[in-house]
Amino acid sequence: MELRHLRYFIAVAEELSFTRAAERLHIGQPPLSQQIQALELEVGARLLERNKRWVRLTEAGKLFLADARQILAQSEQAVVTARRAARGEAGELRVGFTFSTPFTPLFAQVIRQYRQLYPHVALTLHEMATLHQLDAIEGRKLDLGFVRPPEVALPDAIALTMLREDPLVLILPADAPLARHRKIRVADLQGMPFVMYPKEAGTGIYHQIFRLCRSAGFVPHIAMEAGEASTIIGLVAAGLGVSVLPQPFDRIRMTGVAYRPLADSAATTALLLAQRRDDASPLVEAFIGLATAAARHTGAA
Q1: Rounded distance, CA 145 to CA 275, Å?
Q2: How far apart are the C-alpha atoms of 244 and 251, rounded to whole Å?
Q3: What pLDDT does 227 receive?
Q4: Cα separation of the two ends of the chain
Q5: How many CB atoms lie within 10 A of CB 17?
Q6: For residue 280, what are the domain limits?
Q7: 124, 191, 244, 263: which has the highest count of C-beta atoms within 10 A?
Q8: What is the CATH number of the domain that holds 275?
């Protein structure tokens, strides 16, 4: 059964006249009559009663008309949906983000604008550590990810887009002697206990802290591990050590904690957008375009 047969039948059913329906459809009356007869033969039921003076719907025709209208409406909606998807305006987009990402104004701005511009896209957000995001993107479980530098070899299938740079900050007890300094060198942290993410947490900051400390001539002593940044900061407040995290975390205000910038030039991190190199879908391209434009607008890229 072809959609044009449904359109022909609907026109005749609404006009109750083959002549007017043929004019409405811009086809000849004999071909229209032939198409309706072919439709009735395919359906296996008479849909219209007609003679030279009138056309009426049979009971089967009345029921068929309702379904035909619904099928035609669904087919038209399918076309609209497909065209939206081709323009990146419909479908599903799965985006990951690191624990620090929501503390950056850029993230909130991009997500808010994207939802406003593309209301027909099912946007799902997943909080995941950087390395876990890269695995999920490579495995096609995520489409994009806000990540920090992984500090390990990047999979060949993954491409990164730079969005912004963030300094790293030292988190230490407010009453610690080092807290009296405006800036602190990584070398000044030698011999101090560190509170860090576990290695298996999949964060790039774990490897970066070790790299910075080795460059300063020592290996950090890990006193405590915690899987949440707020827990790490709370343990620092309890006097169990110091930690190093991206600056956006300094928005977590807690009594007994001080945040100080690190003087080392290498004590910086970046917010990156990760994607599969072979993914050129309109959904992905639209999101990346919005994110990079927002980064340029804020002067952070």
Answers
A1: 7
A2: 14
A3: 92
A4: 55
A5: 16
A6: 91-164+269-297
A7: 244
A8: 3.40.190.10
* Shared domain check, 274 and 139: yes
Give the Cα separation of 47 and 92 in Å (integer). 41
Beta bridge partners of 158: 276
Considering its fold, how many domains does the chain have in total?
3
Residue 87 has pLDDT above 70, yes or no: no
Q: Using CA atoms, how far apart are residues 118 and 282, in angstroms rounded to an integer? A: 12
Please tell me the pTM assigned to this model: 0.72
Q: Is 196 helix (H, G, I), strand (E, B) or coil?
A: strand
3-state class of 72 per DSSP?
Answer: helix
Helix (H, G, I), strand (E, B) or coil at 233: helix
Token pair of 9 as six digits: 């039948």
Greater model confidence, 145 or 5: 145
Collapsing DSSP to helix, strand or coil, 241 comes out as: coil
